[in-house]
Amino acid sequence: MQFDLTGRVLAALIAGSTLLLPAQAAPPGIAAAVKARKANYKEIGGAFKTISDEVKTGSPDLATIRPLARDIATRAQGQLKWFPKGSGPESGEKTRAKSTVWTDMAGFNRAHASFVTAANGLNTAIASGNAAQIAQAQKALGTTCKTCHDRYRETD
Ligand code: HEC
User: How do residues 80-120 score in pLDDT, each as one tens digit?
Assistant: First the structure.
């Protein structure tokens, strides 16, 4: 009986550890964070593409780009929250965020700050209604995307 119980406990432990193996995947909080940040960037990417296409026409439709630029600025504010510790490549999640995000936090924070400033700058330019100013601000914002991606995002 004693032996039986020990056997069962052992069996349960072995079964338990087998069950734990897939748990090497990121805990739910991390998986959700990666998912949320990719979703946010996807929205930012779509909004920025539409704005860029409008700018290319030479007379961007303000009613179209105004809410999109606002959306980018709002999302930009939350950006630092999308990178909790442990949500990098080591998480096992499908992510292109490089570990540099966490090893070079100061640099990443600067890239984030430039992004926020440029996103606000685009909103100011749109409020002016001046096409040349909007084009300049759109370009400046695009530079902040690229600067951060070059350093902190894996190429495909
Ligand atoms: C401060 C850094 C930073 C800035 C600024 C930034 N990005 Fe990103 N972006 C990232 C990182 C890191 C990823 C990878 C996220 C991941 O895979 O977990 C990413 C991913 C993306 C993706 C892919 C999303 C997906 O579906 O996986 C798009 C699109 C994107 N960014 C567009 C933009 C655009 C457009 C801008 C500027 C308007 C911008 N980003 C500004 C860091 C940044």
Answer: 999 999 999 999 999 999 999 999 999 999 999 999 999 99
Task: Give the residue carrying structure tokens 């593409």.
Answer: 49
Residue 85 lies in a domain: yes
- Asked whether the whole model's pTM tops 0.85, one would answer yes
For ligand 1, pick from 34, 38, 40, 41 the residue to mutate: most ligand atoms within 8 Å of CB. 41
Q: Is 115 in the pocket of ligand 1 (CB under 6 A)?
A: yes
Ligand 1 centroid from CA 20, angstroms: 33
- How confident is the model over 125-135, as pLDDT tens digits? 999 999 999 99
Q: Say how many domains are in the chain.
A: 1
CATH code, domain carrying 117 = 1.20.120.10
Cα separation, 151 vs 153, whole angstroms: 6
Greatest distance between any 2 Cα atoms in the chain: 86
